[in-house]
Amino acid sequence: MKNSLFYAVTLSVFFTLIGCAPHSSQTTQQVPNSLNQQTTPAVLISREVLFGNPSRYQGRISPDGKSMSFRAPVAGVMNLWVGQIGDFASAKPITQDTGRGIPTHFWSLDSQYVFFTQDKNGDENWHLHRVDVGSGEIQDLTPYEGMQADQMHQSEAHPGTIIVGMNDRDAKWHDMYQVNVATGERTLLEQNDGYAYYELDNNLKIRLAVKTADDGSSHVFTKANNEWHLWFKVPFADSQAFNILGFDKQNQGIYMIDTRERNTAALVYLPIGEMTPTVIASDDKVDVTNVLLHPRSHVPLAYALNFIRPVWHPIDDAFITPIKQLNNQLNGGSQVLAQTLDNSLWTVFTDQSNQSPIYKVFDTTSGELTDLFITRPEINNLPLSTMHGVVIPSRDNLDLVSYLSLPLASDPNQDGKPEQSSPLVLLVHGGPWARDEFGFNSITQWLTNRGYSVLQVNFRASTGFGKTFFNAGNKEWAGAMHNDLIDAKEWAVEQGITRDDQVAIMGGSYGGYATLTGLTFTPEAFACGVDIVGPSSLVTFMESIPPYWESFRQILYEALGNPTTDEGLALLKARSPITHVDKIIKPLLIGQGANDPRVKQAESDQIVEAMKSRDIPVTYVLYPDEGHGFNKPENNLSFFAVAEAFLGSCLGGRIEPIGDDFRDSSIEIIHGAEFIPGLDEHMATLGNN
């Protein structure tokens, strides 16, 4: 497993909300007293507009450059559409999902099929489906109960074939199968007896395997005579940044991201069997990210460096001019999401913080960057706040790259220098092995529109800033990682952005844990907290990790603490919010999905029960048809209606009435509706109290 412990709470968790209507019995609160009341607050933007389904999202150009695909609503549910590139009149839905929607998709390299992954009610048992673009036929290529598809590989040299990892034999390990895309027939290529993942060459031959050792290091193996042989080791300190990108055209060496012998991650090339890599691209300040390889020659073309905002840099001399042309047409965040096989067209996601993101097409031959579609055209005429990059010093002199967004009433010039203070929400990203980035953020716009400043902090253990910064978070959950958040809060107070008693903490996944930590380890620091799917006990969390995280277990032990040792178990207990639950004195809202395989429902249940037994107020919202975050639009909208009322009662921000925002949601208020003004009464009117 190469990804972070928890994914940063996905956009779908926060941003796919639908319909709300005013309820006349509720009133809208005014901006907090710390704001100049003579300043007219911005127009109240409805949650429906900010969190509803986008008009279109996740745009892709087919590998042959002739077609486009995207996600768009069908009867309010995000489905897949395909049409001729740029011709939206020709676009038709190719799926008709009526549940949680289609979360992600990609094309077959022959442009004959569209693949998509989907689970059931958030259980993360992802199945791989394909749609025949010509006939419209849909087939599950991994139709096995309780199985999770992983590691999907294609090659232009082998059309009609995809390599997929499946764990139906042993839930801990993904065996590698060759799957016939047309028929779904699978053929076993490699039985996995303990490897984290495999690397295939350009002919779809399994060439490398990576295993996690007992000390958390990664061991890379090559195959010869049908046996695996150790090639090289990546120490634990380097293992999280380490990433094999792929083979060269001749299948004689690999390109990879590597921090060994250096601090920041570099793009390097290493011939098979050799030990000393050649550095291709590096930077002393940040990691190399988003490397683009030519789809056919597999030569590295360009990469991004992302300190405050991503900036593209050429590698291949032929791309010096195209990359300069691309950068000249960008002024915000950007990602290259897909390339045509001839590399003539790139699908580019462009993102300015105070406008709707736009999917664009970059012509690498002409240097022209043109719009494919705007994701949310309706928001461009609304009073949106601007995100500002700031660097906050930690108490031990680390640079915390952060993002500050201010309400228009406190910062009418939108220059990041408030004319008066406002309540602040410290919005903590998930992971923790992820990072906050510059760009449009619906939850940030929602909060600033309600009168709150928003501060997003890349605390130590966040990715992208070198291994020293990353590894500074090892065994520092509720320790130095939390100190970074406190330092950022104090910085905001010193800057006059907010007042010491007007700061809330909120987040999902690790951000939920950080919220619980804030209210237990520093009970006076925050006015209230919103925890979404956050673990309350690191001990029970470690005991209940999904079976397919087995290869990741030793990394967790090294980063958090080893529960099989007395010292490690003591550390995990000491850093668990539930151990200190009696210290909570501020309001807490908890949201949980019943099917969450990462942070199980028991994590929320146990801290709620502990608070109830001590007569500590807490509001607990549960969704029986959700997992690690809330994906259904109806559920998202209901939770953020509750969160808005909760924050309004805590910090005094503006509140849009709940209205119909619970309609068609599975929301269950397990405990504490009476602690949020108006919520108990609203539930009573629904007959669901």
TrEMBL record:
Source domain of life: Bacteria
Coiled coil among keywords: no
UniProt xrefs under Gene3D superfamilies: alpha/beta hydrolase, TolB, C-terminal domain
SUPFAM superfamilies: alpha/beta-Hydrolases, DPP6 N-terminal domain-like
Peptidase S9 prolyl oligopeptidase catalytic domain sequence ranges: 440-653
Signal peptide per UniProt: 1-21
GO BP annotations, alphabetical order: proteolysis
EC number: 3.4.14.-
UniProt keyword annotations, A-Z: Aminopeptidase, Hydrolase, Protease, Signal
A Pfam family of this chain: Peptidase_S9
GO MF term (any one): aminopeptidase activity
Hydrolase among keywords: yes
Name of this protein: Dipeptidyl aminopeptidase BIII
The species this protein was found in: Paraglaciecola mesophila
